[in-house]
Amino acid sequence: MEELERLQKGLQNSNTLVLKTINDKLECSFIREGMVHDNFEVTDEILASVLNEKAEHGVVEGFNFQNLRNNYGWFSLRVKSKKLLQELQ
Fold it and tell me: Could you state, in order of their start, the residue ranges of all structural domains in the chain?
């Protein structure tokens, strides 16, 4: 999934993730040192829902951000397994 790869790169190069819902799509903004470093739209509903679970009021920062960055493999596996389960049903 291209969006998962872009999410991983954004996590490596920033320290805050801001999520906004615009027209039923989730927009991710990666912030580093107060400036938006990267910005993209998530079209996959499963990825969007799992990201929203990680965010507190649309923001992932501090410990939660470090946890997401350091455990990205598990996060990615969770998204992929949910996607596979949805396809099998």
Answer: 2-88
